[in-house]
């Protein structure tokens, strides 16, 4: 259940309007407490959000890098997304993360999923497909479609070969399992994995 203030923020409908709608029986709260405080249900929230016109839904630009060492690349992604989204002529927001593409607990990704579920996003833009997630992109894409949200890849090509991508994915998986198995030694395994990647696929200037 939502208090009137929470319901107002989530729907974008002002508190005075909600009170007026209650009196006019346009939208009555699910119930009122013994002190007369209005309470709204999740079903009412979803009903209103689904009826909101597309002009009230925003576009999202999502950027991600794997580590703090790549913050320059993160800034580059954000700058490009802001430039691209500004040309769309629609309200937008940038969400960014620093973390592995196989880590699904990142704050930005969780915020993105929540906004999709609340029907507040029209389109999601990412520079590259793997910036959203390494695995499970199609699952998130299907979930987004259920809420009339489209995901668009701005750049269909990445400056990496398929072989390099495969090596990075495998090393990411090894790193996750080594962290779980070795605890305090996980940082050692990470350094070994990074050295292996750099030796076989030196970073391009």
Written description of the protein model:
This protein is 51% helix and 16% strand. The chain has helices at residues 4-11, 15-23, 42-51, 71-86, 107-117, 129-132, 137-146, 162-182, 186-200, and strands at 2-3, 31-32, 38-40, 58-65, 92-98, 121-126, 150-153. The chain is built from nine helices and seven strands; from the N terminus they run E-H-H-E-E-H-E-H-E-H-E-H-H-E-H-H. It is an alpha/beta fold and 205 residues long. Helix 8 (162-182) packs antiparallel against helix 9 (186-200). Strands 5-4-6-7 form a four-stranded parallel beta sheet, sandwiched between helices. A three-stranded antiparallel beta sheet has the order 1-3-2. The protein folds into three domains: 2-50, Multidrug-efflux Transporter Regulator, Chain: A, Domain 2 (Orthogonal Bundle); 58-153, Resolvase, N-terminal catalytic domain (Rossmann fold, 3-Layer(aba) Sandwich), CATH 3.40.50.1390; 163-199, no CATH class.
């Amino acid at each position: 259940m939502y208090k009137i203030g929470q319901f107002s923020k989530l729907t974008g409908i002002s508190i005075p309007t909600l009170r007026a709608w209650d009196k006019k029986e346009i939208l009555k709260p699910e119930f009122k407490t013994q002190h007369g405080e209005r309470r709204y249900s999740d079903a009412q929230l979803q009903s209103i959000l689904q009826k909101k016109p597309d002009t009230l839904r925003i576009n999202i630009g999502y950027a991600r890098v794997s580590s703090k060492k790549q913050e320059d690349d993160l800034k580059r992604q954000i700058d490009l997304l802001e430039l691209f989204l500004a040309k769309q002529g629609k309200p937008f927001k940038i969400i960014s993360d620093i973390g592995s593409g196989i880590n699904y607990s990142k704050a930005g990704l969780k915020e993105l999923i929540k906004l999709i579920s609340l029907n507040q996003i029209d389109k999601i833009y990412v520079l590259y497909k793997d910036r959203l997630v390494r695995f499970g992109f199609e699952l998130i894409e299907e979930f987004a479609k259920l809420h009339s949200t489209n995901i668009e890849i701005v750049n269909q090509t990445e400056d990496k070969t398929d072989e390099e991508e495969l090596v990075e994915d495998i090393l990411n998986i090894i790193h996750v399992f080594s962290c779980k198995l070795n605890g305090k030694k996980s940082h050692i395994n990470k350094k070994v994995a990074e050295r292996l990647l750099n030796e076989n696929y030196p970073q391009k200037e």
